[in-house]
Design brief:
A hairpin with a 2-residue loop joins strand 1 (about 85) and strand 2. The two termini are about 40 Å apart. The chain is of the alpha/beta class. The protein is built from four helices and 24 strands. The chain folds into three domains: about 15-25 and about 85-120; about 135-290, no CATH class; about 295-448, no CATH class. Keywords: Membrane, Transmembrane, Transmembrane helix.
Length: about 450
């Protein structure tokens, strides 16, 4: 069973400190009395001065007599009277001790308050890896094919779709960029290097199967790398750039290794469906989203590690970390509507797990789109949802063990029954058309 901490756990209690200070004051008082008594004893001794031999030998009145005069000593200090008596007891030490302890506590709490005020609030990103440099395996010496490999993968003949899968015990980076305007295939620039030359023999590429008529039923590109089995002296690293052609309609990037994935600056990746998944259960995983990506349906998922950056909603956006304890911190904004006169709904769905999640929904001054957001958490991690300045106007439903809501107004039982239904709160106009649904087993912070 977990131990229960009492008020005095981890240090001396308040009254224990008072008792300790009283003891020290009492000892000091006794010591002061002892010193005063010793001084008085020294001053009270009688000094008898004997005549010198020279004076005894001199004739006449020069003979000195025995000095029997007793020196006058200083007055013995009187003990101080008790300044505070209670029930026949001297309480002055108690009040002194209380004053000292309270002053000490005030200084200590003041120091903690100043330190707290000067410390930034935790964001959950304190341990986030740095792209590329936090992967390790920085200086491999043996390269696959002795140089960079260029691979072109044709798309599926019917759907213009494809997938990429990287497996094994390697670590590395992958950057997604736009291909040339006239490109019809996915191009990969692949660099694989290792510290042990024999490991390169275990690297393999799997290409799409081409039918006898030249068509491709399933377009895929798989890179298999060897497992390391925790050999710290060995490592294998990859660095890949994937170029997305404009005719690609659906793409799934699956990373079964430790990966840092990002989008090149300005990348649009204007596909119908783009899904990125980091499967490896490793805290070094990092997925950096980009607000420039314009996939109509965008899905981002990390099992363990970090999912950060900015993302825009063209039609719908899905962010998932619920399968493990990945940490999410994403700013979300709607893309400009194709028909400003009749803007489509921006659909957002987040599903989080045992890792903290922070989602900020950013509005736009140039246009307005209806918001439909679903936030779920299958475990007990905290989730922060900020819709401040998003332009939201509508109903909210919050189901959680504990939550903090600012800005929104609760529906009143018996008064707003016709409007509330399954909804618990609203912001702006209850009939504004926007919707937020929140369901969590942990704590929720919703800021409107």
């Amino acid at each position: 069973m977990p131990s229960q901490r009492s008020g005095a756990a981890g240090g001396m209690s308040f009254f224990g400190m008072v008792g300790g200070v009283m003891t020290l004051l009492k000892l000091k008082d006794k010591y002061d009395q002892y010193k005063q008594t010793a001084v008085d004893d020294e001053e009270g001794r009688v000094a008898l001065v004997s005549p010198s031999m020279e004076n005894l030998q001199e004739p006449g009145p020069g003979i000195a007599l025995l000095d029997t005069e007793i020196p006058v000593s200083m007055r013995r200090a009187k003990p101080k009277k008790a300044c505070c008596m209670c029930c026949g007891m001297d309480c002055s030490l108690l009040w002194k001790a209380l004053g000292i302890v309270l002053a000490g506590w005030t200084l200590y709490l003041g120091f903690k308050a100043v330190r707290w005020a000067m410390t930034d609030a935790p964001t959950g990103l304190e341990g986030m890896p740095v792209f590329n440099t936090s992967l390790g395996c920085a200086n491999p010496t043996y390269f696959y094919n002795s140089s960079q490999v260029h691979v072109s993968i044709p798309l599926g003949s019917r759907s213009n779709s494809s997938s990429f899968d990287l497996r094994g015990g390697s670590v590395g980076t992958i950057t997604i960029a736009d291909g040339a305007a006239d490109a019809t295939e996915i191009k990969y620039d692949v660099t694989i290097a290792t510290t042990q030359e024999d490991l390169l023999k275990k690297v393999s590429f799997v290409y799409p199967d081409v039918n006898p008529d030249g068509t491709i039923t399933r377009s895929r590109f798989i890179i298999d790398t060897p497992l390391m089995h925790d050999h710290k002296s060995e490592c294998i690293r990859y660095d890949i750039t994937m170029y997305v052609p404009p005719n690609l309609t659906k793409m799934h990037v699956q990373m079964h290794t430790v990966a840092h994935l990002r989008f090149a600056p300005g990348t649009r990746a204007s596909v119908n469906v783009l899904k990125v998944t980091l499967f490896e259960l490793d805290q070094r995983n990092l997925l950096i989203a980009s607000a420039d990506v314009a996939a109509k349906s965008l899905g981002l998922e990390v099992y363990r590690g970090y999912l950060v950056g900015e993302a825009q909603i063209v039609d719908d956006l899905t962010i998932e970390t619920q399968r493990w304890d990945a940490i999410a911190n994403v700013k979300i904004s709607p893309a400009a509507p194709a028909d400003p006169a009749n803007p489509s709904k921006a659909t957002l769905s987040t599903a989080t797990g045992a890792g903290r999640a922070d989602f900020v929904y950013l509005g736009s001054k140039e246009f307005t789109r209806p918001i439909s957001a679903l936030h779920t958490s299958s475990r007990n991690a905290d989730m922060y949802l900020t819709y401040r300045g998003s332009g939201f106007s509508g109903k909210i439903n919050v189901e959680s063990k504990s939550y903090t809501i600012t800005g929104a107004s609760p529906f009143r039982d018996g008064v707003d029954d016709e409007k509330s239904g399954k909804w618990t709160h609203y912001y702006g106009d209850p009939d504004g058309g926007d919707e937020i649904l929140v369901n969590s087993r942990g704590w929720i912070g919703l800021y409107m």
